[in-house]
Structure to design on (345 residues):
């Protein structure tokens, strides 16, 4: 067979007359020798032993008009597939970057010891080093075959599902450069965000702590702190309509005297709002700083667990779809519950 002009299933470059071409003895798939040695095997190895035999893309597409062929590895996929079932490349509104392009997922160590990874520009982001959303690429520019904590980015993307344009570059940056990014969703919503992202164990713990702090704060404010404030203001001769700007110097001095005369327990009650604010802010900051790392660790462990429990690529893809993604119902329900608690009180 004349392979000149056909594309290598691994690198996607057309074969030329000068190329050293090797052919898989099992299925007949042609490769550049360098590509085959680098891969270490035929990419269709999982189909060996079946009636599968490699065919030029044009011939196979004529025989099977309902397939969508991956531009990277040449594997056939259904027309509705969003990702390649073999290599994980996004198949919707995206094209395989040219071989050798710095976005191709190959890691090259530079003289200064730093690494350039494909899947996105250096630093995995824009010119400020922040992850940049690639609008037409579900993986945010990260190569699906690129290992992130020893897990292919394509598998992680299939598990994450929502907002992969943000998470994939962040995961790659954490894995390769140890550089994290502050997660504002985790900062503002803490346990709700974790439960929304299906981090059920830690999300439940954080949500319980949040709920306890919220209910405790509202209870103490309503039945102890606010009545104590009213008493202090009345003893200082300050009406409820007064503000700190409308108080006279004598009223302010009287209020300070009343504060100093309080017992230790009463002084702690006066400081309750500050203590609760510090506790809530601490939880928010911790969630914002560790949210991405926590989610990466969880996603990698879940993908590995699913892989060990499934025996076929189809079952693996189905389990990723079922176990991954987000729990919108739970997230919205908890958010409404917290809002209801504040409105009721």
């Amino acid at each position: 067979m004349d392979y000149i002009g056909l594309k290598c299933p691994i690198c996607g470059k057309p074969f030329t007359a000068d190329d050293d071409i090797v052919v898989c003895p099992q299925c007949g798939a042609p490769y550049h020798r360098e590509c085959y040695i680098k891969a270490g095997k035929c990419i269709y190895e999982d189909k060996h032993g079946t009636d599968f035999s490699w065919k030029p893309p044009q011939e196979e597409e004529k025989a099977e008009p309902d397939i969508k062929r991956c531009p990277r590895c040449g594997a056939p996929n259904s027309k509705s597939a969003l990702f390649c079932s073999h290599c994980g490349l996004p198949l919707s509104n995206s094209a395989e970057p040219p071989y050798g392009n710095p976005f191709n997922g190959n890691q090259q160590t530079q003289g200064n010891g730093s690494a350039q990874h494909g899947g996105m520009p250096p630093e995995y982001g824009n010119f400020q080093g922040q992850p940049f959303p690639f609008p037409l690429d579900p993986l945010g520019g990260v190569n699906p075959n690129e290992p992130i904590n020893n897990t292919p980015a394509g598998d992680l993307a299939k598990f994450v599902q929502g907002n992969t344009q943000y998470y994939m570059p962040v995961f790659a940056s954490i894995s390769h450069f140890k550089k994290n990014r502050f997660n504002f969703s985790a900062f503002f919503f803490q346990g709700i965000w974790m439960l929304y992202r299906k981090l059920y164990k830690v999300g439940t713990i954080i949500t319980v702590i949040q709920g306890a702090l919220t209910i405790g704060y509202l209870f103490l404010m309503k039945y102890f702190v606010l009545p104590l404030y009213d008493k202090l203001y009345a003893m200082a001769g300050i009406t409820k309509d007064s503000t700190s700007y409308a108080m006279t110097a004598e009223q302010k001095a009287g209020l300070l005297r009343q504060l100093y005369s309080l017992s230790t327990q009463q002084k702690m009650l006066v400081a309750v709002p500050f203590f609760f604010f510090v506790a809530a802010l601490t939880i928010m900051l911790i969630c914002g700083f560790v949210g991405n790392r926590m989610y990466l660790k969880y996603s990698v462990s879940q993908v590995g667990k699913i892989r060990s429990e499934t025996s076929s690529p189809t079952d693996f893809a189905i389990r990723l779809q079922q176990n991954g993604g987000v729990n919108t119902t739970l997230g919205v329900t908890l958010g409404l519950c917290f809002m209801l608690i504040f409105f009721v009180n």
